[in-house]
Design goal:
By secondary structure, this protein is of the alpha+beta class. Helix content is 36%, strand content 11%.
Length: 87
């Protein structure tokens, strides 16, 4: 989701399961969560929407969609090293 959307960590943290509309393959980014403070409806690729729908199955709409750590780079650095990409 982060790679496809270009959203910032705080924006991703703000999503609740209920923000996702799997029928139209979109997600609602509320204005208070967006960097520019404007509400936006973002398109999802059909395959991404299908995977997220599975991931969120049996979760309540108010459940936080993603658990993003305070310092997401700590998760990324080992992957960069394995891929041979300098940080």
């Amino acid at each position: 989701m982060a790679c496809e959307s270009g959203l910032r960590a705080n924006e991703l943290r703000s999503f609740k399961v209920g923000n996702f509309d799997f029928e139209s393959c979109t997600v609602l980014l509320r204005d208070q969560s967006a960097k520019n403070r404007h509400e936006a409806v973002l398109s999802l690729r059909a395959d991404t929407a299908a995977e997220l729908k599975q991931l969120f199955a049996n979760k309540l709409p108010e459940t936080q969609a993603f658990k993003i750590p305070d310092k997401p780079i700590k998760l990324l650095r080992p992957d960069l090293e394995v891929a041979g990409i300098p940080y």
